Amino acid sequence: MALTSGAKLLFDAVRGTSTGGGGWGSLTLVVVAFATFAVGELLLSALGSHQPRLTSFLGVVLGLIAILAFFLGLVDSGWAWLLVPVLAAATYLVASLALALAATTSVTD
After folding, report:
1. What is the mean pLDDT of each run of 10 residues along the chain (109 residues)?
2. Could you give the C-alpha distances from 10 to 3, 22, 40, 74, 77, in angstroms and in order?
3. Which of 20, 29, 30, 59 is disulfide-compatible with 95, CB 3.0–4.6 A?
């Protein structure tokens, strides 16, 4: 959230609008998503997760899909400070449970 807020302030100061638009907006999305992935992986590693990189990647991807599919209007409002952390926790939990289920499921012919 801090990276996104900082980017909005920077775009507002430089461009006079809170959105990056085009290439700069896309670059900001990639940087924020990668930072989220990297921090998530480090935290999951510190907590002893079995697959921290995959869990973090899946959590970020599921979060982006959920935001783009269901919460795009809310993310641009004041509710983002509540929505994004709750959604991130939920998507990381779903990613962790899905990977645990996949690890314990046996494939039979």
Report:
1. 64 62 75 90 93 95 92 80 90 94 81
2. 10, 15, 25, 21, 18
3. 59
